[in-house]
Specification:
The chain is α+β, with helices and mostly antiparallel strands. The chain folds into 3 domains: 86 residues, no CATH class; 84 residues, no CATH class; 84 residues. It contains 11 helices and 6 strands. It has a 6-stranded antiparallel sheet with strand order 4-3-2-1-6-5. A hairpin with a 3-residue loop joins strand 2 and strand 3. Helix 9 packs antiparallel against helix 10. The longest helix is centred in the last third of the chain and has 27 residues.
Length: 327
């Protein structure tokens, strides 16, 4: 194998109903690789792994060959898992499948979250794929984020210049018209106010783990109101909820993955050398977008790069041309 790119397409986590802390994971990958004498090919790879998660120490353990497997050997078709599904003594607690449009419940169970289980990072085979699904916030960079954003906020206050927040306006576009829906509903529902202690205990780490959600869903996940979440964001120096920027980058990344898959099937139209160059260019662009998405999660106030904006515009134009051609 000269080169290969693996893309996570499915992840299922099972906990044992017999052995405390025992976990099994099933990972599905779309692999694009180049084989000698064959050229670029694409296939699916499925892996089942075993772990033991505990406060004393988490570790990866091999799945015995004679032990019952979660992923049944010889099964026809693509494996399908759902949360709550039981396979022998194993119960599914996380299910993700990008092809079958299966999304996991958020937030993840505490033992599968770095804030609830810091030792999870010692298990890269599990943590890296969980991070792709749940987009964990990097805790190591959070103190720097809090300090730098607080300094910028203080400078704006002392200089008399308004913060780049436009008060409610910047958030209004991301609230899914909360106030309009309430006014049109005819009846006004009174919600119990969140406890002040609970509000004060919400950290930037917890807020950052919800950046991939619309602000209304994020407020429900954090069990606070939208207005309270906006106020907490201001306290941490976040001028705009970054959901749309992250969603835009995700869309571009998925588009690149689709194009990457199409390139591997277009053997007739492309020469092998040109095909290899095209795949390398697409892979490089995908990695750049992934790094930019991570940078925005670390610094929500930052804007998209000019090159990314131009690339997004080119993608929109290509989609519109394809749509007009199909009409």
């Amino acid at each position: 194998m000269d080169a290969s790119v693996s893309i996570l397409t499915a992840l299922a986590i099972f906990e044992s109903s017999v052995e405390h802390g025992a976990v099994r994971s099933v990972h599905g990958y779309k692999v694009v690789g180049r084989k000698a004498g064959v050229g670029w090919v694409r296939w699916e790879r499925w892996v089942e792994r075993g772990f033991v998660l505990s406060a004393a120490g988490s570790r990866e353990v091999g799945v015995p060959h004679d032990a019952p497997r979660v992923m049944q050997a010889g099964c026809l078709g693509r494996p399908a898992f759902r949360e709550g599904q039981s396979v022998g003594d194993w119960r599914c607690i996380v299910a993700f499948d990008s092809i079958a449009a299966v999304k996991p419940s958020t937030p993840p169970p505490p033992m599968l979250c770095p804030t609830g289980n810091p030792q999870l990072k010692c298990l890269p085979n599990l943590y890296n794929d969980l991070e792709k699904v749940f987009q964990f916030q990097s805790e190591e960079k959070l103190p720097q984020l809090i300090q730098s954003d607080s300094e910028e906020q203080q400078q704006s206050i002392h200089s008399g210049e308004p913060m780049n927040i436009s008060d409610e306006a910047d958030y209004a576009s991301d609230t899914d018209s909360d106030s309009d829906e309430d006014s049109q509903s005819g009846t006004v529902q009174k919600h119990q106010r969140a406890n002040k202690t609970h509000i004060a205990s919400i950290t930037l780490v917890e807020i950052a783990q919800c950046f991939h959600l619309p602000i209304r869903e994020a407020s429900k996940t954090l069990k606070i109101g939208v207005s309270v979440l906006k106020k907490k964001c201001r306290e941490y120096g976040i001028p705009r909820w970054p959901h749309r920027k992250i969603k835009s980058l995700d869309s571009l990344i998925h588009d690149l993955e689709d194009v990457l898959g199409d390139q591997t099937r277009d053997d007739v139209q492309l020469e092998k050398e040109k095909q290899a160059l095209a795949i390398r260019a697409l892979t490089k662009r995908k990695r750049m977008l992934e790094r930019e998405k991570e940078a925005i999660r670390q610094k929500p106030a930052s804007d998209l790069m000019t090159e990314t904006k131009q690339f997004r515009e080119d993608v929109f134009k290509r989609r519109n041309r394809a749509k007009r051609a199909s009409d």
